[in-house]
Amino acid sequence: MADHEAKAHHHDHPEDPQAHATRRAVLQAAIGVGAGAAVLSTLWVGAGLVPRVEKVPSKEPVAVGDTLVFAMGAKADQEITLDDLRAAQGAALPFIIAFPKSPENVIKKDLRNNTLMVILADPARMSPETRQHASPEGVLAYSAICKHLGCTVSQWINNNWVCPCHGGVYDIHNQARVLAGPVPAPVPQLPVRVEGGRVVVAGEFLGEPGADV
Ligand code: FES
Known about the structure:
It is built from 4 helices and 10 strands, in the order ααβαββαβββββββ. The chain is an alpha+beta fold. The chain folds into 2 domains: 3-49; 57-201, Rieske [2Fe-2S] iron-sulphur domain (Rieske Iron-sulfur Protein). The strands form 3 sheets. A 4-stranded antiparallel β-sheet has the order 1-2-3-4. Strands 5-6-7-8 form a 4-stranded antiparallel β-sheet, with no helix packed on it. A two-stranded antiparallel ribbon has the order 9-10. 26% of the residues are buried. The model is unreliable at 1-14 (pLDDT under 50). The site of FE2/S2 (inorganic) cluster has 11 residues, from loops.
């Protein structure tokens, strides 16, 4: 057989077992890739169909730069000023329950853990850590959600901040140290400053807000 004939014969041989195996492997790989791509594209389409979680601005957590507004009462939704806090100092309830308001003017009242307390206190009575996160005037803010079972800490009894549900007592001058009651931990302080007479959030909560359950 001539040399060129031998080559032609080799190429034309349909049953060469090695060539057959190679073709099979290539085909299988191609099917595999195709199937993989199909699965991937299904996932891709599926991901597109999952409803997106819409951000609700009034449920966004308190953030640096927010101002504090009255949560309730005749001045509900109005910004709390240093004058308001001075006026509260002489009242039966010397603190104000507040919500944060974003620079875009959204009052973030629909997130429970955004319920805050703000008070004007004497810096000389504060522990150094507490004073560090208060304004120089003595404005202090805390989460108002009790660490026990999540009630709003809303009472003032015998010069102390008290939870009405089970009598938890917090020391506002000392990073809300627990003085009495079944409360497992202090509520976190929220750093604030006064800017243009308004109370502005100056840092993140110094701990986790909300009940410890
Ligand atoms: S929820 Fe505040 S003391 Fe129980």
